[in-house]
Here is the input.
Amino acid sequence: MQIKPRQHLLDIWQAVARHSFDGGEWDWGDWGKESSVADAERLLCLLYPATEIPAFRLDDPDTTQEDVQQALKRAGGRLEVPANLVTAAAGFMRAHTGEDKRPTFAGGYYFGSADKTKQLSEEQRQVGVVDSFSMSITLCLATLGFLKIYETRTRRSDIKETISELRQDTSNRLTAAMVSLLRSFTVNVFDTDSSQGATLCELLGQGRLSQRQVLNKFQNRFRSLRAAINESVFLGIDVQEGLKDENQLFECGWAWSMVKDAPEVETDEPIGPQPEGVANAVPYLYFTVVALDGIQDLFSDRTLTLGLLNTEQQKLAEALRLRWELTQQYWSRIARFDDDRWPLEDLPWRTTGQKLESEYFSLSVAAILVHDLMRRRATDDDLTRTVSIMERLAERGRITSRMTVDDPMVHALHNVGIALPLQGSERLGPPMTWSMTDFSAQLLKRTVQLCTLSRNLASHDRLLRLAEDIFDHMWKRRIRDGEGVGLWDNIHAAYPEAEIHKRRVPVSWSITERVTEVMVQAYEMYQQPPIRSLELTELSKALLSESAHLLGNEQMEPAPKDDGRHGMQLRNIEVKLRRARTLVDEQPGTAYALTLEVLGQLDALARARQAADRGV
Here is the structure.
């Protein structure tokens, strides 16, 4: 199925408007305001495309396009839609602010209990989670950018008042989310003889290197990075001393929440008291990927151009950027630890901290590798090997291959998902879990990101075909009846033979938001110039040379008596050749087609002249 970002986004917006607006007013419904993560994802389904794609802008009603208005007619007319979005965002900020005026980041119903006989307490459901910190950064930046334009376009005094209050609340939430992410970053140092050390050595050695060989290679490969982390990030005396010992292994990234005993971050911003951390100082691949996705929005072109960060937030952003770069470098080197055979190519990946094994973790490491490939100039070899990994993950995940009888992959990756044990949560009550059911959506997101990055024709074509196959799978999974029609997630539509786990909530906003993100990325991908073919460029230049020569020859011939038609034909040929010359470097295929057309016209003129000569 071809990805048509404009049409698919309009379909998603129409479904979101049908589900979330009642009589032109935002309606949170039964499950709204229960999870800050789900509510942020829901708002981003509208705000993210509206602030990233010019054709989908809603902040200037005079420029709102007709098909966009039609898709959002349940949300009101072109003047009401931006006002209603402002009201919805203000409602989100109020709902997720504590009595002490401090922004809250509750995971809510996204949290699960590891003990099925015990329910989580309200205190546990209110714990902040990295998903919320990261999603809040993206939402707050989108909201601030939206308000910056819309406040100059609206004349409604009530909305101007709401905008003023919302801007302050959004800025406070942005600061609080950044501080929380800083306090969730951790480095875990351990011996090679520990269970974590043994798992990491086995993962990196792949049965070909001894523990000693792995340690020696680890020391050489991570010496500079180890020093950079030690010098740049304050981690506490014990951790920093451990990092100095090169006989120790380490991992870095984000825990699931703020780390227990993490020091407070000094800031002058009015974010209230910083809560106690609860998570063990152990990085999670999933939450690390989530954090990296949100942090990169802080230094996007749009954020910098609109000046969305104040001075204090810019300092926090620089601290996060440092951790972002260090983490990417660490996991990218781990993924490609052995040049002959990457550990990432040995599917599935095994985590050291949680002792779990799944294709989802392979995808998480691949996602960080994609981040790193986008940051630096990737080699063709790196890109080709990463493409193969994506294709294998799609096949193993039963997206591009058929499911088997009682297929465990469908159950583990799509239906119930991977339940991550949240280490440290037992301090508050029954041990908590976090389920990941968005394997297909994440794979689609990373594939489109790689496709945007690739400037190699063969790799780009493979990635585009894979993206279309995954998207076809995802589009089948839209809800077809009942609440949430046109949104996600209906597993049974893609796997009719599978026993389907009953979900508590009717709509998966996490998957819906991921698909929306992919449409924005696909839009950006198609905005890029097409990949140049050197062979086609040379061929086009050769055709241009021949065409110019034949045109010059034709212009020397006496013009026939045809009332100026011959002259018009020659001028038309000149225009096409000029156009072909301007395109030959960027769009050699188009230049080739134009030049072939010119050669055909020149040949027709030559044949006509020859026929006339014979007639004489």
